[in-house]
Amino acid sequence: MKKRSFIFSVIFLYSILYLHGLSLKVRYADHPDFTRVVIESYTPFSYQIYTQPGKINVIINGSFDFNFSKKGIYSRILKKFQWEKKNSNTHFRIILKKNRFSLDYFTLINPFRLVIDIKELPPSIIPELEGKEAESASYSEKGLNYIKTIVIDPGHGGSDRGARGPSGLLEKNVTLTIAKELKAIIKRNLPVRVILTRTEDINLSLEERASIANNQKADMFISIHANASYRKSAHGSETYFLSLHSSDEEIRRLAYFENNSDKLENEILPENIEDIKLILWDLAQTSYLKQSSQLAEFIQNELNYLLGTTNRGVKQAPFKVLSNVAMPAVLIEVAFISNPEEEKKLSSPKFQHQVALAIYRGIINYLKATGS
Amino acid sequence: MKRRKEIILIVSLIGIICILIISIILSLKTEKIKVKKEEAAQIYSPIIKETTEKKEVTIFFPSEKDSLLYPETREIYLTPSLIQQAKQVILELIKGPEHDHLPSLPSTTKLREIFITDDGTAYIDFSKEIYQQHPGGSEAEIISIYAIVNSLTYNFPQIKKVQILIEGLEKETLNGHIDLTKPFSPRFNLIASNKEY
Question: 0.80 exceeded by the pTM?
Answer without folding.
Answer: no
